[in-house]
Structure formats: structure tokens, C-alpha cells
Amino acid sequence: MLEKRDFYINGAWVAPAKANDFAVIDPSTEEQCAVISLGDQADTDAAVNAARAAFESWSQTSREERMALIEKLAEVYDARQEEMAQAMSMEMGAPIALSRAQQVGAGSWHIGGFLKAFKDFSFEKDFTSTEKTLLEPIGVCALITPWNWPMNQIILKAIPAVATGCTVVLKPSEVAPLSGHLFAEFMHEAGFPAGVFNMLNGDGPGVGSQLSSHPEVDMVSFTGSTRAGIAISKAAADTLKRVSLELGGKGANIIFEDADPKAAKQGAIRCFRNSGQSCNAPTRMLVHKSRYDEAVEAAADVANNTHVGPASEEGKHIGPVVSEVQFNKIQALIEKGMSEARLVAGGLGRPDGLNRGYYVKPTVFADVTNDMTIAQEEIFGPVLSIIPFDTEEEAVAIANDTPYGLTNYVQTTDDEKRRRVARRLRSGMVETNGVGFAQGSPFGGYKQSGNGREGGAFGLEEFLEVKAVSGWAAE
Length: 475
What we know:
The strands form six sheets. A seven-stranded mixed sheet has the order 15-16-17-14-13-19-20, with helices on both faces. A six-stranded mixed sheet has the order 10-9-8-11-12-22, with helices on both faces. The mean pLDDT is about 95. By secondary structure, it is of the alpha/beta class. It has 15 helices and 23 strands. Strand 11 (about 220-225), helix 8 (about 225-235) and strand 12 (about 240-245) form a beta-alpha-beta unit. The chain has two domains: about 1-245 and about 450-470, Aldehyde Dehydrogenase, Chain A, domain 1; about 250-440, Aldehyde Dehydrogenase, Chain A, domain 2. Helix 2 (about 65-80) crosses helix 6, helix 3 (about 80-90) packs antiparallel against helix 6 (about 180-190) and helix 4 packs parallel to helix 5 (about 150-165). GO terms for molecular function: aldehyde dehydrogenase (NAD+) activity. This is aldehyde dehydrogenase (NAD(+)). Keywords: Oxidoreductase. InterPro entries: Ald_DH/histidinol_DH, Ald_DH_C, Ald_DH_CS_CYS, Ald_DH_N, Aldehyde_DH_dom.
């Protein structure tokens, strides 16, 4: 069993101020795989004070110095990617092939995107011939990250923060903390100065709340549930710090009558990826009635033929969900769905042959209406709801009838319709016809999916203040 009790504060690994052991559970086996310690106020203060002390000098370093360190981090990340893949696979249950290719790969992708954006990013702009607009680092940033895409979210926050001259305190999810611990090792190996990057473990009510309300923290960047995002916003309100939130989603995948014949199949595969534990998953499939029966059959076939197995097993299967709490929540929502809609695949309990581990059957409900619980609540598991529609107007209305607004999807060969519908969907992202987003594309949502944007130049801007300076002599 791994022992990872220490925190990374002011350039060194330090013991917690007070012992508070917390078991890390391998969701594939339900066995303890590691132990960490949860921090308290003394640990939080130490990390924040280290970041505050380092800010003055770090904020004044040159773009070239910061870029060189990020490039070195990219080299360390690449050299140690197998360690990271194994850590994420064990802590949160991503099958090892998925962990190597997509969980680790997401980190590499975003580091590259930030380096490209940073190279040409302007921190000074001429407003008039005698007035300058300066973009300056906001200060000490608390980064609170989730368990479902650990490196994706840590890198989307940590890299733009340090690139712009901020100093940071990272609190990874206590459910999946091993990747965050390893990332701290990477930052140390890359040579970032003491205090620029700090990491401590803790839970939301403890360290999470302490960071959100801390008077020496200038900004909180959080990814997680909408419920937690609201709590963080309230905790931060007393000190009026900036809060950037990337929260839940209930994406609609609109399949028009002229969509690609494989649209429903691909949509179901996308929904079940990462065991359904993605905020941008297309969990509501809206299908034109002329294609509805075909889509239901295709989605059920995908569910019935999706292999579920341990994260350590090689192959293109899905693994367990992350925890017992998550498993029980999903089971309760599947049970609710069985009382609301027509179950066409999956259902309650573990898949056949699996009696240990937090495994969920890939599940498909048909004849769903958008007022049902399973169409409104973010299930965060491999559960797909299929809703029929008649007209474009109805499809847009159903898609927008949700408290969330992260990612929606449109499938049609009619380019004019595709663009028209994309403009009407109330979400931060609209993916059309399976075309993925470019490196550095802004990631974020509307409504209760949060505020702010991550990735590329948009992600850099999140960590900057705007300063107007008059009487700036021409250079």
C-alpha cells in the first residue's frame, strides 16, 4: 500500500501539522490502495503563506523564464507518463488503455495548447497613444480539482496560473489524490521556485472551505459539482475573491432525420466513455421520430456489447465508477428511471461476473420526457436517456430546458441547420457532427454549468487582472 501523507509546501515535502489519515480505495477491487492525510487550518495557512511569499518575485519574472520552466515540466510529464497513467487508473478506475491515451493525453494536449497560446500572448496593449492596458497576475490562486479527469483539470488550472505569474495552492480530490501528488513531484523536478506551486490534500468542508474563505487567496478555480460550486461561491463572497467554476452538465445530443447513420451508435459510445463520468457527456439523446426506433436499438446494442471490467485489464472496456458513494447514487437514479421510462438495456446491480468493485451496467432508457428525474439530474454514470422530437423548434426547446449549459451536440448533414441550431443552444460548447474541438479551444459553460473558460488564451486570461495606465509615454 502506498503512503502519501506528506504535502508539498514551499518547495519541500512536509508532514501534516496533525495526523488525519484517509484511505484511498481502488474502485476496481474496493480495497485500500493508499493512505493520505487530510490537512487542517494550519496546513492550509502554511501553503497559502508560502504562495503569498513567493508571489512578489514570481510575478516579476519574465515570460521567457516561465515558459522555460513549463517546457521543462512538459519533458518531465512525458518521461513519467506511465507512472501517471498507473496512478489515475488505480485511484479512479479508468481502464489502463484509456488512462494512457486520454487521461494522460489530455494533460499533454493542454500543456501544448498553453505553450502555443503563451508564446504570442500580449500582456500589454496600447489603448490610445498615451494610455496602456496591462494584464497582470491576480495573485495567490486556490485550485480545487475533481477525480474524474484528474490531469485534465489540474493542468487546465495550474499551467495558466503559473504561466501568467500567479502562485498556487492545489487541492486535488481526496478520492483520487495520487495523480495530484505525482504532479507535485513533476513540478519540483521541473525546477519551479519554492512557493510558486504548493499541494495539500483535504476534503471540501475542510481544506476546500478554508481555501475558499482565506483572506490571502485572491482567486479560486474549482471544477466539480454544481452543489459544491455554490458552496465555494458563498464561502468566497466575504472576501470578494474571483471565483472561476466549471460545474455539471446534462448535454443534449440532437440527432436530426438526415444525420449520419452511425450517429446514435457513436453518441452512446461517447456517453459511456470514462464510465459516464464526464461533465460534457451527451447523456440526453434527442432523436427525430423518423429515426427514433433505429436509435433506441443502436444505443441498446452498444450498451449490451460494452464490456465492463477492472481498470488494470487491457482493452477498450469501461471500468468501475469512482466510489461507493457514486455507485449508490447511480443505482438510485437507475431505479428512479425504471419507474419513469422504458428500460431497454442495463439496469440495477453489477454486470454479470463482477461481485466486487463499483461496476455499473451501461444503461439505456427510452421514451423519456424531459421533465423526468433522469433527464434533469446529472447522473454521472453510464446512463443514457433517449427523447423523441418532431421539429427543430421542439429539439432546441428540449435541449435548452435544463439548469445546465456546458456542451450540446448536433448531428445533421444540413450545414445551414447545423449552424442555426448551434447558435440557439444555450451552452458554452456545441460539438457538431463528431468534429472535436481544437487545441486551446475555450472550455466552460452557461447557467449552472459555471462561469469562466479554460484552455489556451482564454484560460490565461482567467488568471489576469486588467490595469489601465494613463500618461504612458510613447516607446
